[in-house]
Write a structure and sequence with these properties.
48% helix; COMT_dimerisation; transferase; seven-stranded mixed β-sheet
Length: 344
Amino acid sequence: MAASPDTPAATRHALVNMIFGSMAAQVVAACVRLGVPDVLGDGERSADEVAAACGASPRTTLRLLRAATALKLLEERGDRFAATGLGALLRSDAPGSMHAFARVFTDPVLLRAWHRLDDGVRTGATTFDEEFGTSFFDHLGSRPELATAFNAAMSQGTHVVAGVLPDAHDFGRYDVVMDVGGGDGTLLAAVLSRHTGPRGVLFDTATGSSEAEGVLAAAGVASRCEVVTGDFFASVPDGSDAVLLKSVLHDWDDDRAGKVLRHCRAALPEHGRLLVVEPVLPDSVPDDVSPVIYLSDLNMLVNLGGQERTRAEYADLLAGNGFTVTDVTPLPPSGFCLVEAEAG
């Protein structure tokens, strides 16, 4: 039905909120980059105090703080401001912090390709590659600060999954669990902490796994886990009976994802297990679905050339590369699913 002058105000307001959504994200970005959540900490401070601590103009800092208050990141107490529970997640030192996650996903580098989403939809091209003349991960290799923030963001985005996956699957049946593309080891450390029988192998690039030894040591599992560096497009080490792949396959199109899967299959024994942890798209869009999974799908399109997939698409992708899907288990509240497959 077309809009008319009689369209309810609430409907128009909802659309305006979507249109202004990118501006709201930049309020989050500015607060993180200026360090506002860290300055506020557990207390409350005036706009002048925040501005002095952040090296900013008091007048414009007040305007930023009021916008953050309207977004429920802060609350205003007279002439002073304090972080809400939502805003506290943006502190760099908060339990369950999303500071790095917010920093990376509001960075101009990630957003530049989004400005050409229509081109990406029209052509199917990865607009990041066209904008920067190189792939996203190659670009990260030339930006150490952004690469560090990206690795931290991936770790922060893994914490919720790490809290539920170890109890959603019997990892105790395996001798060796290898986390391919395992980053800083957050997920594998959680699995090995919960299941004391298996040993672990964390496999990633030197850059991706640079923080892994510290994470594994802090979890008390370093003696049971080896960190191996390499490129999963070239090969995957053998010696495990279960391979864990979290947030790897959605980064790539079917051809490149298939290459990773074939290397995983070559590394596994007959009837070894593949454990894929990814969002799984419904067959059609439910009324109550979070839009995040679909925004992530488009982010894969413009920045990486990958995609989110349905259960049927995962079954086809895995079947074409040596695996048979045996089960798909949602992992609430993470938004991810565990796709279990057997090597055949």
